[in-house]
Write a structure and sequence with these properties.
The chain is α+β, with helices and mostly antiparallel strands. The chain is about 25% helix and about 40% strand. The chain is built from two helices and five strands. The protein has a five-stranded mixed beta sheet with strand order 4-1-3-2-5, with helices on one face.
Length: about 100
């Protein structure tokens, strides 16, 4: 993930499919992202998927993207579709959106 002029920050948007709702996925994702120093958000989608927007250092984003492939205990991930984004720097934390 290429960095930008914001000190090597990058971002990605991802959609995670599988058994990802009702298993604590959002709360676990927030905890993992915060531990990695990332900012952004996670939310459930109406179709049963989970959506993530994460910003931060390239290495931390790579580690988080790897975590999304496994998810928390109880989740069963069938796919993670992600695309690189430019970091905006507009987030103060990593939150759960409702």
């Amino acid at each position: 993930m290429p960095g930008d002029a914001r000190g090597g920050l990058s971002a990605f948007h991802a959609t995670i499919s599988g058994s990802v709702q009702g298993v604590g996925f959002r709360y676990s994702a927030r905890r993992e992202a915060q531990a990695l120093g990332l900012r952004g958000w996670v939310r459930n989608l109406g179709d049963g998927d989970v959506e993530v927007l994460a910003e931060g250092p390239i290495g931390a984003l790579a580690a988080f993207r790897e975590w999304l492939e496994e998810g928390p205990p109880g989740a069963s991930i069938s796919s993670v579709r992600s695309e690189k984004r430019e970091a905006t720097g507009r987030f103060d934390d990593f939150s759960i959106e409702f």
